[in-house]
Amino acid sequence: MAQHSHEDHGIPLLAPEPRDADIGLVVKTGVGVLLFMVVCVIIARFHYNYEIGQQEQPEASPFSTEQRLPSGPRLQAQPASDLVDFRASQAHVNDTYGWVDKAAGIARIPVERAIGSSLEKGFPLRTPETEKIALANALKAAGAKAAAEKKAAPAGAKK
Prior knowledge:
Layout: H1 23-54, H2 79-95, E1 98-101, E2 106-108, H3 111-121, H4 128-152
Antiparallel strand pairs: 1-2
């Protein structure tokens, strides 16, 4: 059997690949990446300084203890005394008798008196009769809702 070389078939002989990476190329790539990063940081710093210069007024820090009043008209000149007056008026309403709507005969009573009256009279309890009435009312409401939905649905629509 005859031995044939690669050159006989038109395939040139190639040298094997080197086992180690080219140190010069690795160093050049690292320096290029480092320079790119430095340029990016410099550009970002200039852009940041530009944006800071464009701001009209510095925003207050959420951690600041300084309280600045907003610009514009003051809706309450004395908010602390307004709050005291409001609470006093609410306490007066809660602690005195008065008319809510005199024409309709609706009056108010002090909260403490209302609590005492409710405790004296007691609260309604559920009985089998009231349970049946509640169930009937719930079923009636559900039927009315279903009828309204059916009436509102288009004629050609199917569920």
